[in-house]
Amino acid sequence: MIVFDSVRIAYPGQRDAAVEDVSLGCARGIITAIVGPNGSGKSTLVRALLRRVPLARGAITVDRTPVAELAPRALARRVAFVTQREETAFSRTVRDYIALARFPHGDAGGATAQRAIASAVESAAVGALLDRTIDTLSGGEWQRVRIARALAQQGDALVLDEPTSFLDVAHEMQVFELLAQIAGSGVAVLLVSHQLNLVARFAAHIVLLHHGRVAVAGTPSDIMRGDVLERVYEWPLVVSRDPAVGAPALVPLRRQ
Amino acid sequence: MMRHRAWHWGAAAVGLVVVALVAVALGAVRVPLHDLFAIMRGAAPVSTREIVLTLRAPRVVLAALVGAALGASGATMQATLRNPLAEPYLLGVSGGAAVGAVGAMVLRFPAAAWPIGAFIGSGVAVALALGVARGAGTLRAADPRTLLMAGVVVGALANAIVMIALANVPPETVRGALWWMMGSVGDATWTSVAWLAGYALITIVYLLVQAPTIDALTLGDDAAAGLGVQVESATTRAFLTAALLAAATVAAAGLVGFVGLIVPYLARGAGLSRQRDVLVGSLFIGAALVIVADLAARVAMPPSELPLGAVTAVLGVPFFLVQLRRLR
Predict the structure, then answer these.
(1) What global pTM score does this model have?
(2) In a domain, B136, yes or no
(3) Environment class of residue B161 by beta-carbon count within 10 Å: exposed (0-12), middle (13-18) or buried (19+)?
(4) What domains appear along chain A, each with residue ranges and CATH number?
(5) Residues of chain B contacting residue A47, judged by C-beta atoms under 8 Å apart
């Protein structure tokens, strides 16, 4: 559904491109993950899809339409974002916050909007939080509420930039289970994450970036290899197989 | 947080009318309530009628308009810049207006031209602040935080220009400029009321239409872009409209500071969170606040009158400090 085709992104005043010749696709019904070390260009790709940074070369398309040709609201009706940072200066109720999702549709308060919001609230299990203000939510609740807001946009794709930062294990798992459920409903989920072990268990397709280029792309088995990850992360590590769930597990080693 | 229904707004409107009637009734000459009703029936003595219709009523209505406009301007600036400390006084708009008005005085233009000078000065200040913000920007046209800093810098420059302009002028010009810079609705006429009302109506309706976009902007640039907002142009449009609304009040009543800071704070404190609600709430609260501040300026130390801007500043500083503490 979402395709990055030979994308190059260069920030003004910087010698090297932030992203160079990156191609990847994100299909409906699965989680596609972009992983890689800090500064490898993951968030830059998301911001380019958001049209917050211009492309120096290549194209990004949504259902074969270049995003550059889509009106901002038309893009927002197709692709919902949970961005890395959200600087809410003023508090509001969770109910009012989720209702902001209907901005691209221009139907706030209408019956369609109410149905979309009710469905999103149920999917993300945030019904009990609706009358709370967003400044009273815990980190895990806040991320679920943000995902509910994105779901209420009713896009065919959901893009999330590090949605489990600062979350404990249980809340991380809640978010990943929710994303799996969303992908299972036919939505294309594009996830930027540092949680390689969880990504390997939940994503069907993983793109590993290194210095702005695709180092490896493929299934979790293609990515979760000690030699590949050690080269990209520039740190000694091993990849074992978790005896309990059978998933590949990355274990960083100490230098000494 | 409370959901606001129609009767809340009705109660706010009734409250505002009561405050306005009290302000019309009180002053150097007290006008009993039954005389006010007599005026409405056309049965009051001519002198009372003159006091109310020529002096008090336009003054109170102008105070209400100035307060409503500054409240709406502050609510828009705070949401657009995502900063609860943002307000026209702090963002250089008022300083630019002062330069324009004092410039008109120093250049010996007639008094009628001073508000026009204020209006032009505000426009130049906003353009300068936007230009400085854009010049400091990288990929973005005008970062809200850069805009806030640019406004502070433009305000400081405006203060310096005013001081230089007043350094070598006759004392009466300095006194006139100072009085105007301290803010007053004492010279209100129905003409100035009509002028500001027309201007405020157009800009406030536009800000109400833009309220859902401004709501999205409060989430931050990337999140707003994810909702389909054209962040830079929406920010610039809303900020410019709010700035020119504040400029109109400066042209009509001089510098009345801190209203744009206090009023949205009170509106949000009353449980309002959606931008459209905050805006409407700010109209009512701003109108009532400046009416009461002007009443206090008139009756606090008779027979002399305190500067309106000084009264609002005395009210505003504690709010500023509270907000600063909350931001820590």
Answers:
(1) 0.87
(2) yes
(3) middle
(4) 2-252 (3.40.50.300)
(5) 222
